[in-house]
Write a structure and sequence with these properties.
By secondary structure, the chain is α/β, with parallel strands linked by helices. The chain has 10 helices and 10 strands. The strands form 2 sheets. Strands 8-7-6-5-4-3-10-9 form an 8-stranded parallel β-sheet. Belongs to the DHPS family.
Length: 272
């Protein structure tokens, strides 16, 4: 069970987190939902297609992405968040800035998704104070611009597991009520690293926290399938996420909600 402020999300089966990027430069859908009305329309579509929760982000963290000033990230995020919270599904906010997270939590956001892995103690304190769960993601350095220069590991599975375990324990000691672990596919990782983490995902699951996986449309999917355009990497994304579910992942962060809902309906029937 994942506790999201005033509600609980049953994780006895995999759940779908729909991605809503409020950015001009995200790798797959940058610029499509900068307009708040278009963003709200897309949020409604994701919910109608079967998203169990939504993840809103207003700063791209693709490799080499330029940082976004705090006030600009707030300007993009907060009006859309306020509207989306009326749709009745839990809403996660994808941000690495405590200043942005605090404003989102004041509005009622249910989950903080921190790609830097709660390295900033201010973010830990904030989640504890508001009593909200946090996603702890692995990235070798807390800077998307530099992360690919650090895609070097002796044993990627062991190193990611060690980082996530330490950050989760630190957050829980500080009063964060619950953590979700994300191996950070593509964040400072090459194809070989992503495949190793996916093949051994049960080792991350064994840490005892819900595991979130986000491979949707990513470069690794394109490298495996030969599909160059990110928006067309749907089938490969579904295949990777079903494998992750088989390994114990319980939240799948995806762009293509309808395709994943259909695939999971069959998967759930076969595994019940």
């Amino acid at each position: 069970m994942l506790w999201l402020r005033d509600r609980a999300l049953d994780l006895s089966r995999p759940r779908i987190m729909g991605i809503l990027n409020l950015t001009p430069d995200s790798f797959s859908d940058g610029g499509l939902y900068l307009d708040p009305e278009k963003a709200l329309k897309q949020a409604r579509t994701l919910v109608a297609e079967g998203a169990d929760l939504l993840d809103l982000g207003a700063e791209s963290t693709r490799p080499g992405a330029e940082p976004v000033p705090v006030e600009e990230e707030k300007r993009r995020l907060l009006p859309v968040l306020e509207a989306v919270l009326e749709l009745g599904v839990p809403v996660s906010v994808d941000t690495r800035k405590p200043e942005v997270a605090e404003e989102a939590l004041k509005l009622g956001a249910h989950l903080i998704n921190d790609v830097t892995g709660l390295r900033d103690e201010r973010m830990v304190t904030l989640c504890a104070r508001y009593g909200v769960a946090a996603v702890v993601m692995h990235m070798p350095v807390p800077d998307p611009q530099a992360m690919m220069a650090h895609a070097r590991y002796g044993d990627v599975v062991a190193e990611v597991k060690t980082f996530l375990k330490a950050q989760a324990e630190n957050a829980l000691r500080a009063g964060v009520p619950q953590v979700v672990l994300d191996p950070g596919f593509g964040f400072g990782k090459l194809l070989e690293h992503n495949l190793a983490l996916l093949k051994h995902l049960e080792e991350i699951v064994a840490l005892g926290h819900p595991v979130l996986v986000g491979l949707s449309r990513k470069r690794s999917i394109g490298e495996l399938t030969g599909v160059e355009e990110p928006a067309k990497r749907v089938l490969g994304s579904v295949a990777a996420h079903l494998f992750a579910a088989m390994k114990g992942a319980r939240i799948l962060r995806v762009h293509d909600v309808a395709a994943h809902r259909e695939a999971l309906a069959v998967w759930n029937a076969l595994w019940e």
